[in-house]
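Raw record, unedited: AAA+ ATPase domain-containing protein
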Amino acid sequence: MRALNSHYVVIDLHCSWHSTSHHLPTSALAYLNISSNLISTVSSSFRRTRRSGSAIRSASSSSSSWIPSPEIRRPSDRFSSGNGYPFSSQNVPSTSRPEASTELEMFLELLPLKMRRELYRHQEIGTLIEVVMDLGRKPLARFPSGDWVISEQPIKLEDLRHAISKVGEFSDDNRSGINSSLHRISAIRNRKMQIIGLTCRVGRAVSGSAEIIRDLVQDGGSILVIGPPGVGKTTLIREIARMLADELKKRVVIVDTSNEIGGDGDVPHAGIGRARRMQVPNVHMQHNVMIEAVENHMPETIIIDEIGTELEALAASTIAQRGVQLVGTAHGMTIENIIKNPSLQNLVGGIESVTLGDEEAKKRKVQKTILERKGPPTFTCAVELISKTECRVHHRLDATVDAILAGIFQPPPP
């Protein structure tokens, strides 16, 4: 509802206000500034925690469609899947130790022998995040507890050459990997295009990491995963791909731009299960491969990592309109960051500016120019990764976007 053309809104006061308010679009809430009691009643329908059990309604939803409000989820919490079966992270299987230790050994082979020995002595070696090696500087190992200096000896060219010899060729985005593993090696180059630094990130397939949002996966809607770098977006969608392919028996195709989801090499990592993987020759061709996947391979679900350009966002929108389920990631802290990103606005339906007449703006007590959603979002729901152990779930992305634009969105308490 872009504007109210009439001068009056008729409300049947004999009916319950609670039920009447749900038939009003979000953009009309500011218009109904009849009394503070009425406005607070409407606004309260957009706020809830899991304990209160209330719900919100989207401006575009039908009168019979109830939707839960955003909620915080943690692995220690219990949730019910779509069929009412409760599940808990306590019952989630984890990656087997022999397999995990073997892949960690493959990663540590990148380092010179002395650095490798020092790392093996660290008590948090099993939770190693990444190793940073910059020419002429001390090597750093990053753990959940913080950075740790591996050696007092600065990195030499020989150390970098040793690491480079253990990985495949670097692509246009300066990323490479180790064959049959999920590890990612990123290079820093000088002006002569010579490698003078490496960021070596440990990749892990964590079985059961998607249990916390199993209900969203089983519902069949498209899922947008939002979070800052290093919070576990790729790990999550890798497990979603396996869950969809192995447990729900769907035809899943992964568009793997940097080989992060399916690992390096032509044979994909076992962590994606029966899902198929399409590699992208060039980082700028991701949107073309996304469309190619739909047209050539009859997928029921497309998995995309790091949607970052307008062309990729448009390709995702095109895929969604063809009835294919989408699971994708985007960098950002919250949905509001996606709304403010011109390249990614199409993921949330696009944003447009609407100009109101003087009289209508006065009645609404708002500025003459307001922001509204252009159309339906590409994704049905969204998951904001707050940390590796906490996420915020938005069951209906359109409702959240409408509430943010109307200025009445209240995030759930931690």
